[in-house]
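Input/output pair, single chain:
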Amino acid sequence: MRDNLIIGLDIGSSQVRAVAGRQNNGQLDIIATGKSNTSGYLLNGNIVNINKTSQAISDVINQIETVISGKNKDYYFSSNLSGSHINVFLYTSTKLRKNPNDAVTEKEILELNEEAKKAIAEKNPCVLHRLPIGFRVGSLPETMEPVGQIGDRIEGDFMVVTASLDKFELLKKALRAAESEHIKGGNLYFSPLATSSTILSSEEKQEGVVLVDIGSGTTEISIYLKKRLSHATVLNWGGDRITEDIQIGLDISPEHAEALKIRFGSALHKEIDINEIVMIPGIAGRKPSPVSVKNLAIVIEERIKELAAIVLSEISKVTDPANLRGGIVLVGGGAQMPDIDELFQRTTDIDTRIGLPKADSTIASIAEEIKDPSFATAIGLVQVYFDQLNDVEEGDAPTTQEDQVSGPKNGGGSKPPGIKSIFNRMVDTLMGGSEDAGEYDA
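Output:
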């Protein structure tokens, strides 16, 4: 698996973006990319036309296969799941110990994990991830390495990500219909977890950072403190709202509003000359009409200020904004808006940067294409797949049965698992709920 090619599929409300990558001496090499339109097929991240969505995914897969054809191998995808139906919450599991003076064992940690897993699944039919974020033994401080400590009880904190079962099943159907002869099966991840793997540094996660992924239909906000995901939410807020505002405010068609936003849009109206005008073509041969670029920017600026205020509100639910030394990082198609980082920084008073994917490429033209915040999730989906494998000691199975979506399996070894392997098996990386909820046949 470490030498295989993995396809990252970022399924968004306006486009499916895909990258094909492999590991090369610890670096991620991008071999091919693809894009396909999904406008009108997904609404706020949710599939509303499964046939068209499947066709869009299939088109992207065909683009990838054209580049990697002739290799006579099976490849696997790593896909994302998002939408306002996603729920992220903290769950704490507690277990009293029979022998409090004995050192905590690996077996006890895994038993605590299984109890938490069962309790969470009983109340949530669709568990995407269950991430261990800390343990406490007796009255000792929180740790990620409880094995060997002594105390009368063990508490484990888990960050749980759940989804609507109906929407998950719909995504599975779309992916199944889009599979090709050589590209089939794979893993599913909550988008921010994948995006963070290629955008955020370990130092930023340690010091506190907010990742804001602005798509066309949704915006995902995830907050990291002390290297752990502390809070996440998905908003029904995206670039489409800005387009709607432009359409109404400037009294133009949706198509012209989108084109204006992309070609002439800016998040700061003060930077634009009041005399700058763009002519909009008239309908059916009618005369073109003028549009002020400054007025365009005023509309955009007000809507983005609203988003920045929402982000600040989400931060305040978790911590004092002053504690976020890593600041705010903007990604997604919406992060391409000129001056958006400066407006965010002015509105929130938090240092803000644009997040660009960290990946190498064997093709120069592709390297330029992926230097774009809109490709962050697609690249992250490939990176997180390999990260999962790298965190497992040789010979250990990377995940439990429910963590595989008809992909290849690693063989099991006989030696006891190390601490990384223990935690890796505790992370529900894909789909939970039932033992085969995340699997499907090609």
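Residues 397 and 410 are 5 Å apart (CA to CA). Residues 87-162 form a domain with the Dna Ligase; domain 1 fold (CATH 3.30.1490.110).
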